[in-house]
Amino acid sequence: MSDVVLLGTGGWNWPNPFCRCASCEWARAAGETRTNSSALVDGTVLLDCGPDVPGAAVRHGVPLDGVRLLLLTHAHADHVSPQVLTLRHWAGRAEPLVVAGPPAAIALHEHWVDPAGAVELRTVLPGDKVTVDGYEARALPAAHGDAITGTCVLYDLTTPDGTRLLYATDTGPLPAETLAATDGRAYDLVLLEETFGDWPGSEAHGHLGLREFGEAVAALRRNAAVAGHTRVVATHLGDHNPPGPELARRLGAHGAELLPDGAVLTFPGPGPRTVAPQRVLILGGARSGKSLEAEHRLLAEPEVVYVATSLQTEDDAEWAERVALHRARRPAAWQTVETLDLVPLLATEGPPLLVDCLTLWLAAGYEDPARIDALVTAWRRTRRRLVAVSNEVGSGVVPATESGRAFRDALGRLNAAIAAESDEVWLTVAGIPQRLR
């Protein structure tokens, strides 16, 4: 049996003591403090050791005297603290210790090693393996780095009892070589960075935001690196993220967990704690964020069928541009189907469906109650995971025409009927989703 202690789950620090953003203010008020990302495996292997880590170990009551292998991902200052070797020396620790990492990270430690001591510095590059006391660590490529760090790596770690862990921070979208190297690994635990929330440009900084995090989980599911029993935990969190409750909800949609610093995970142990609802209806007005919310919920799925009920038109350039923007933001692995024939899709087995949107589906035949009844029945009986978007129009002005009023009324009735058969119903307003049931 193996255990993993999350000594830190922050990027630098969250909250940032110099920042007064809503995220940092929430963290201060809630007493949530996240320090430099680091994990301790069985008291023997330490993954990253930034300047906060020794103090974090003390706060969480976790001694570091048993560490025999220190694995460093790169040379950024929140991941390396060579002074820790002096603390170890002052404590009189003479047991062997291997410090392994990329060249720039190892170079920072050279002047802190006692020549008469038992500390070995070992340079690793992607593809290299380090084995200490039965723990095997394999370095994998990371999409991260600059003139300071040079090469950066992630780690695939196997413990003596066979527990498998993927430590993936810092990195942008996982490189193809890393996905190939993790193919079929079926990890017990994946510690995956999620630094930037919804802030644009995360990839340019060699990190993941919430969207890229979901896409990375999907890629790991497609290659069976993340299996049914795998626990996925977000780490390297920063104040570009939403406050904790909303972040936990967003991560939960990906089957991932938000855990506090000091959390202890034991393997073998319980698998993922989140169960996705089967049928979800997301309502909202124009530009309320309802489509983005629907897409976010399925980003971590290995396969998704995007059902577009807006059929391509040749004589409406503005509408064609809207459709093109929707297509551009969908993951490349998603399959797009343009159809109004929803009932057969709901009746068949297959990957999750994202239907966008029921409003346009209804417009093609709102006068036909039998068509609506058939859809509601299919929605009730479907065995597929299903997320659908629809407009909430009842709060606007009364339409000026009889046909407009009839359509508004029909859409209200359809939304109510689908909501009654849904496991969850959400309303988005100003980009903020609110759960109705």
Describe the protein.
The protein is α/β, with parallel strands linked by helices and 437 residues long. The chain has 2 domains: 2-267, Ribonuclease Z/Hydroxyacylglutathione hydrolase-like (Metallo-beta-lactamase, Chain A, 4-Layer Sandwich); 279-435, Rossmann fold, CATH 3.40.50.300. 28% of the residues lie in helices and 23% in strands. It contains 13 helices and 21 strands. It has helices spanning 22-30, 53-59, 84-90, 103-107, 176-181, 210-222, 244-252, 290-298, 317-329, 342-347, 358-363, 369-381, 402-420; strands at 2-8, 38-41, 45-47, 69-71, 97-101, 119-123, 129-132, 135-141, 153-158, 164-168, 189-193, 231-235, 256-257, 264-267, 279-284, 305-308, 335-338, 353-356, 386-391, 424-429, 432-435. The strands form 3 sheets. A 7-stranded mixed beta sheet has the order 6-5-4-3-2-1-14. The chain has a 7-stranded mixed beta sheet with strand order 7-8-9-10-11-12-13. A 7-stranded mixed beta sheet has the order 17-16-18-19-15-20-21, with helices on both faces. It is elongated. 45% of the residues are buried.
